[in-house]
Amino acid sequence: MEYDFDTVIDRRNTGSLKWDVAEQELPMWVADMDFQTAPEIREALQKRMDHGVFGYSILPDTWYEAYIGWWQRRHQFTIEKEWLIFTTGVVPAISSAVRKFTTPGEKVLVQTPCYNIFFNSILNNGRVPVEHHLIYHENGYEVDWEQLERQLADPQVSLMILCNPHNPVGKIWDRETLARMGTLCAKYHVIVLSDEIHCDLTEPGKEYVPFASVSDTCRSISISCVAPTKTFNIAGLQTAAVFVPDELLRHRMWRALNTDEVAEPNAFAVEAAIAAFTKGEPWLEALREYLAENKRVVKTFLRERLPQITVQPCEATYLMWLNCAAISPDSVSLCAYIRADSGLYVSEGREFGTNGAAFIRLNTACPRSVLMDGLNRLAESIGHYEQENCKQTLQ
User: Fold this and answer.
1) Averaged over 230-256, what is the pLDDT?
2) Residue 391 has pLDDT above 90, yes or no
């Protein structure tokens, strides 16, 4: 079956967070794809809607089987049924874990640049974020092991939020690196909360490594957050899960999610997840190929039209991390200029940590015609920006 990713879907005036912008603006910021979800999921939701009764829902065995089967088939990792807990979203689960496994004033470690909402989950709950600055070089980001151990040794650091694969830099952490992280965290009694929501959006031929699969140590200290929402573009349905191998951690996490009332499924959340993980594989394979080509298009365009922008290698996600230091060290002002000049709305890197100040994040999950519109706007605005700066320098 062929799937259509080229048709432009008009999302304006649909209550879309991404597209609630001015008419002339083009949003390429939030991690939300502009493709319709898999037809197999839409069919399952239509069937559920046609039933016409939407009362309280429970989790059928098929929900557990769908997650278990997908991780065995796609990621060669066996999740036990009792490990799984439903939750309405990965972010609610992260916030619940922060509240349950830390106390106000304690520290939570994140590896920056990282998903900006991690900071919200930490700061909004009265905890203190600790930035472990990943080492940046042209071939990718790496862990600063000396700094990481110093930070984990602080007795006030009791939780580490791991992004696996890593958003926004698109890195797939290898097994050896994850094992070393796990060993250090266990040494200093730090729980690892692994956000694995982007795990299925890897480049064709590349595979992510579930943190809990790496070793007995990693398994015993980890809480993993997973979902079909990013992969199948169904975030608005609020359907996710956590799996926790350790019995004590699992009980505490179960209590956290239920106390916060984010562990009760709705009818559509259940059916969407089951359909995604049992019938969505062909659509996903086609999507991964399309996204990989989109990223190749971006690299070629920047090399030919904007060589002053360095493209970070991207093994996973549909988000591209662009180094604009040669244009401006301040991506906040640069992004504001671009939006005002051409209407292109991208994410400023400073949102993702103090070491992201010179970067912008570009969402490439859109039809190719839309992508080209965005890239042309970017080139136009960068040209105007550099012309204005040159004039100011000469004055």
Assistant:
1) 98
2) no
CA 209 vs. chain centroid, Å, equals 15
Q: Dihedrals φ, ψ of 346, to 5°?
A: -120, 170
pLDDT at position 392 over 70: no
Domain count, the chain: 2
DSSP SS3 for 368: helix
Q: How many CA atoms, within 13 angstroms, populate the side-chain half-sphere of residue 26?
A: 22
Task: DSSP letter for 320, please.
Answer: E
Whether residues 139 and 261 fall in one domain:
yes
Pairing assessment for the beta strands 157-163 and 107-112 based on DSSP bridges: parallel
Between CA 146 and CA 133 the distance in angstroms is 11
Say if CB 211 and CB 196 are below 8 A apart: yes
Rounded to whole angstroms, the Cα distance separating 318 from 168 reads 9
Instruction: Report pLDDT digits (tens) over 159-215.
Output: 999 999 999 999 999 999 999 999 999 999 999 999 999 999 999 999 999 999 999
User: Do residue 51 and residue 156 come from a single domain?
Assistant: yes
pTM: predicted TM-score of the whole model, two decimal places: 0.96
**45 and 268 Cβ atoms separated by less than 8 Å:** yes
Domain region containing 178: 41-279
